[in-house]
Amino acid sequence: MSIDRATPPSPTEPRPYHFPHITRTTLPNGLRILVAENHNAPLVSLRALVRSGADHDTAQTAGLASIVADMLDEGAGSRDAIQLAEEVGLLGAALGTGADWDATYVSLDVLSRNAEPSTQIFGDVTARPTLPEDGLERVRAERLNEILQQRNEPASIAGKRFASLLYGNGAYGNSVVGNADSVSRLTIDDVRRFYQQHYIPNHSSVVVSGDVDAQTAIGLVTRALGEWQPGPEPARPVLNTRPIDASRIYVIDRPQAVQSEIRVGHLGVPRSCEDYFPLSVMNAIFGGVFNSRINLNLRERHGYTYGARSQFAFRRQAGPFVVAAPVRNEVTRESVSEMLSELRRIRTGDIEDRELDDTKSYLMGVFPATVQTASDIASRLVDMELYGLPEDYFDRYRENIAAVTKEEITRVANKYLDPDRVLIVIVGSAKAIREPLGGLGLPVHEMDIDGNALPVA
Amino acid sequence: MLSLEEYKLANGLRVVLNEDHSAPLVAINLWYHVGSKNERPGRTGFAHLFEHMLFSGSEHVGNNEHFRYVQSVGGVLNGSTFFDRTNYFETLPSNYLALGLWLEADRMGWFVDAITQEKLDIQREVVKEERRQRYDNVPYGTAFERLLHLAYDPEYPYHWPTIGSMEDLEAASLDDVREFFRTWYAPDNCTLTIVGDFAPDEAKRLVEQYFSEIQPRGSFPAFAHQRKPLSHEQRETFASQVQLPRIYRLYHLPKMGEPDWVHADLLTTILASDKASRLDRVLVHEKQIAQDVATYILPTEATGLMLLQATAREGVAIEQIESAIDEEIARLAVSGITDDELTRAKNRAEIEHAHQLETFDARADLIGMMSTYFGDPHKVESWLEPYRAATADDLAHIARKYMIPENRVTSLFVPAGSAA
């Protein structure tokens, strides 16, 4: 049988996709509960979201929010840390706790036959942790060693220095994990105070998804967290950003490096930005997907890197916009130069129809593939709660992407990208890259991995 | 039970269908039975470099167009290479099943005339950057490579990691690409798995339409290597750019799927998984001498291996960590494990298996693995049976028989000079 191989086959009729129905309720103590049933696998995902994270850390308490999150499984209810882990394991569950810039999370994934006892443990970890003093010493020692290890990880160093240069010492400027000084100083009173102020039901949401009936799930969460005591809602910290008056290069010396970790960027926008959809499409074209301009240029055209990408970190307040790639030492200047020229090009309105159509249909079409699991669905509901997205958000997502035009992309590229005022942070071998970088005609500052200025060599 | 249907085309292509309409998606997954263990010294890293080439176009698909075709309709895709196999996969909206099959058939049957020196040179640079990013420029990045060098003699193909050496990547030629393709890439060396929202009759018609005219190879070079047993423990101390010392161990095991391999898999959970696991509890939680511990086994077809690693806290000597680990292994070998520990380990195996079946893509990959390594896709359904049947003594037996000095290699990573 001979067939036409030169022409790609046409699609058949698309099959409809519907995001699972969401059942919502709010308990008298203010805790919001969202449930999405999905009976494809015998698994249930539970998520608690507390709307405070490392954005509440100060220069003195950097690391506190994530330390408190790490303390949640150091003992809860009547169990110590080991008993808690044993009980979770006997139920066929996996328990996780953590904090990022905007929030703190507790997660529990479990075989659905054990959803009931697991929800009780989940409630204890969230609302009744014991926060023991010896637990803090364990968590602190582990954290200090983690911070020490990061001193040899180029991507981690680049991220820390970029955030610090952009945000200074305030929210988003310190590392989520803190630094050796701040972590050494934290006391159990700091931990307990943070917990009491922020871990309150009227500042939190619980999401359940998977193989459980919605009313049953609400009953289980009510039993586990109905007695959780509310309190005054904490105020949102103010973001202190430093305006960038002109582009500058910061080289952080790592003498043995065989690659340069490059970060080029500036302040971005909050998740609530009215231009979220055109910005998402613009970033996907620029550097958000494999076939984006930045990756095709640096990887597939030049072979400079294994992967280059860009991102608007959409947070509750304005996160950074960053273009990132690790490249071999010899092509560091060329890579920065290509990044800057791509930033300039996307602002000129030079966008092909095919590029726009491909990107929009990718963003519209890929959604179902990213929400196959109970855990994926739970994460989407957590986002919805954290960023205050409208109830029909996932139902209207496709039409919002479809509506983006070439003109809007050019407009947002000009409004939110500024290639003449970027921070360029490079972690690499100063000896190997210093001189070529000088050819870019931008001021070059050298610093150590802690951000201390080094004399110009 | 999954609804699995297995059949072969006349050219030897094994096809496995798993119909599931719970989402309007279809996962297409191809396992070629070739990996880095089919490379020869001097061309290490080639199977993986070849995988990159297979994304750079075929006769009817331009350079980078494979990615574009899939992504522009909302699909996700990738490929990966390991010791024993290379897989290629995409998950598409289900109405694009034909597109995915057309793309995969084109590179299975019409690849070799589309390659150019320029495409090879670019992908060679990309892969070298991959090696720098993952191995050479990060702390502990070369640990696995060093363990393999210690554990297997230079002729045995697990001696080198899939990424290969810079020197060998540099040496790869267009002729190597052609020869590798002609030796290994053929329908009778492949399993095509389709999972998701499709009508079986239509899927079979499309598979026949796109793949049936690709010629089979008939025979493939046999894997004839035998691992030489160690006569005694191989050890090294390696000073490098790390802040904290770390111990790496590799223990030899029977190959994947053997009863002892399954029991070793359960034992890794008991040794290091959560705070209540042995090494975590004693080294990290109680004595607080270790920063982290981890144990795992890899899905390997030719021979098995268990990996163990532990990082020392600042100021703790790596020797102290090693003695504490050996003490716990000895305790386990002598006193065995508890029923609760066994139950927890079995629970974890069950939840991990459930997670693998949860998405179409991971399920298709698991089916591809079972078909390729065991010749039986239905092993996906019976996979947990030997786990459920395992006894506490089966696990203690692993510690006694395999976790002994004569059966292991050890690499100690220690900080070099002053930290930078």
CATH topology of the largest domain in chain A: the name is: Cytochrome Bc1 Complex, Chain A, domain 1
What is the residue-mean pLDDT of chain A, rounded to a whole number? 96
Number of strands of chain B: 11
Q: CATH H-level name of the largest domain in chain A... which superfamily?
A: Metalloenzyme, LuxS/M16 peptidase-like
Assign an overall shape of chain B.
globular
- Tell me the β content of chain A: 15-25%
**Most extensive interface between two protein chains, with residue counts:** A-B, 84 and 85 residues
Radius of gyration of chain B: 23 Å
Q: Encode the helix/strand succession of chain B as letters.
A: EEEHHEEHHHHHEHEEHHEEHHHHHHE
Distance between the termini of chain A: 70 Å
List the helices and strands and how they pair.
The complex is a heterodimer of chains A (457) and B (420).
Chain A: E1 22-26, E2 32-37, E3 43-50, H1 64-71, E4 75-76, E5 79-80, H2 81-90, E6 93-99, E7 104-111, H3 115-127, H4 133-150, H5 154-167, H6 180-185, H7 188-198, E8 204-210, H8 214-225, E9 248-253, E10 259-267, H9 276-288, H10 293-301, E11 309-314, E12 318-328, H11 332-346, H12 353-365, H13 374-386, H14 393-402, H15 406-416, E13 423-428, H16 430-438, E14 444-447, E15 453-454
Parallel strand pairs in A: 2-8, 9-13, 9-14
Antiparallel strand pairs in A: 1-2, 3-7, 3-8, 4-5, 6-7, 10-12, 10-13, 11-12, 14-15
Helix pairs in contact in A: 1-7, 3-8, 9-15, 10-11, 12-14
Chain B: E1 4-8, E2 14-19, E3 25-32, H1 46-53, H2 65-71, E4 76-81, E5 86-93, H3 97-109, H4 117-136, H5 143-151, H6 166-171, H7 174-184, E6 190-196, H8 200-211, E7 234-240, E8 246-253, H9 259-271, H10 278-286, E9 290-297, E10 304-312, H11 318-335, H12 339-358, H13 360-374, H14 379-382, H15 385-389, H16 392-401, E11 408-415
Parallel strand pairs in B: 2-6, 7-11
Antiparallel strand pairs in B: 1-2, 3-5, 3-6, 4-5, 8-10, 8-11, 9-10
Helix pairs in contact in B: 1-4, 3-8, 9-12, 9-16, 10-11, 11-16, 12-13
